[in-house]
Amino acid sequence: MDLHTVVEVVSPARPGQWRRGDAWLGGGTALFGEPQPGVTRLLDLAASGWTPITVRDEGLEIAATCTVADVTRFAGAPEFTAFHGLATACCRAFLASFKIWNVATVGGNLCAALPAGPMIALTAALDGECLILGPADPTDGPADPADGPAGEIPADPGDGDGGPVERRVRVVDFVTGDGSTVLRDGEMLRSVTLPRASLTGLTAYRQGSLFTHGRSAALLAGRLTQAGGFVLTVTASTVRPYQLRFPELPDERHLLDELAAAIPDDAWTDDVHGLPAWRAHLTRTFAAEIRQELAA
Ligand SMILES: Cc1cc2nc3c(=O)[nH]c(=O)nc-3n(C[C@H](O)[C@H](O)[C@H](O)COP(=O)(O)OP(=O)(O)OC[C@H]3O[C@@H](n4cnc5c(N)ncnc54)[C@H](O)[C@@H]3O)c2cc1C
Predict the structure, then answer these.
(1) pLDDT of 163
(2) Signal peptide span per the entry (predicted)?
């Protein structure tokens, strides 16, 4: 839809340009999906020219502007079996046409923070870490970094010459609820880094919807770690991602007990795509199936 309050588009945009009334623009598929009465200017990140996916010593760096189509097309680093296994499945969980796939960005998916965000599932399951850039002038945006949420990795205060202030937050902590994130005014998501240690090994995945091509009601990913541990990431059925970590593959009873203890009753998503009780049931069923698949 037309955003009729928007009077200017800055393209390409850079960190530090944000002022009140601005919105960062990724692919625009969520932003243009509903009225944005408070937005008067768009800061176009998609035109920034950032390399979508870079293989680094520490792992895979995914730019915020990397599209869902870029993720599906990425065939590099075949040794990153966990990435390739989950990436295909998560992209398919994206209920959208090829037109949306070609413009919707990984960063936009995380920042829109919908429970059924498949790029949230992918990057949370692989222990992704978000690089957040904020304005250098604290009166312009971020408050004292010490006010940051639990799970935040300490901020880099910047270089003192007006450059952006960096902080890092794990993806699993980045999304705080349905449509909410840890981003403060003026901050933008620059990239997500998936550490090398999480990119190899076995994964299993389950997704369920009310109907065949429906939005995810539950999307779970399990991963065996190099040390023989087990990581289970729950998304879509809950309003924000939940992650359970075990030093070894637990038996089913232990897994289900820990799941019940970790997810409070009011954290189950309640919308037209599924009732909370059914989502909780799907989550338990999928968790047990993932455990069984990885045990085999
Ligand atoms: C037909 C259709 C089907 C869809 N299916 C799904 C689905 O199954 N699951 C799902 O999760 N979503 C779905 N969506 C919603 C949307 O397409 C996705 O969430 C998409 O990933 C958003 O990415 P984008 O790049 O288009 O974000 P945008 O629309 O550009 O931005 C979304 C929000 O994030 C902010 N933002 C964007 N990039 C950044 C950044 N780098 N830093 C800070 N803030 C930023 C924007 O200001 C805005 O508030 C669907 C949409 C359509 C139209």
Answers:
(1) 80
(2) none
What pLDDT, on the 0 to 100 scale, is given for residue 141? 44
Q: Is the beta carbon of 30 within 6 A of some atom in ligand 1?
A: yes
Per-residue pLDDT, averaged over 281-288, amounts to 98
Determine how β-strand 230-235 pairs with β-strand 175-177: unpaired
pLDDT at 235 over 60: yes
Select from 3.30.390.50, 3.30.70.20, 3.40.30.10, 1.25.40.10 the CATH code of 202-296. Answer: 3.30.390.50
189 lines ligand 1 (CB under 6 A): yes
Portions of the chain given CATH number 3.30.390.50: 202-296
Report pLDDT for 142: 41
Can you name the residues that pair with 168 across neighbouring β-strands? 131, 153
Contacts of residue 131, defined as CB under 8 A and 6 or more positions apart, other chains included, come to 166, 168, 189, 190, 191, 192, 193
Q: What is the pLDDT of residues 168-218, one digit of tens each?
A: 999 999 999 999 999 999 999 999 999 999 999 899 999 999 988 888 999
Pocket lining: 91 vs ligand 1, CB cutoff 6 Å: no
Q: Where in the chain is the domain with CATH 3.30.465.10?
A: 51-200
Tens of pLDDT, residues 241-273: 999 999 999 999 999 999 999 999 999 999 999
Ligand 1 atom showing the smallest separation from residue 23 Cα: 47
Q: 3-class DSSP state for residue 258? A: helix
Q: Which atom of ligand 1 is nearest to the CA of 120?
A: 11
Pocket test for ligand 1, best of 1, 31, 271 (most atoms within 8 A of CB): 31
Give the distance (Å) from ligand 1 centre to CA of residue 271.
Answer: 18
Q: Provide the CATH topology of domain 51-200.
A: 3.30.465
Decide whether any atom of ligand 1 lies within 6 Å of the 45 Cβ.
yes
Residue with CA nearest ligand 1 atom 33? 112
Give the whole-angstrom CA distance, residue 73 versus residue 87.
Answer: 10
- d(CA 114, ligand 1 centre) in Å: 8
Report whether pLDDT(12) > 80.
Answer: yes
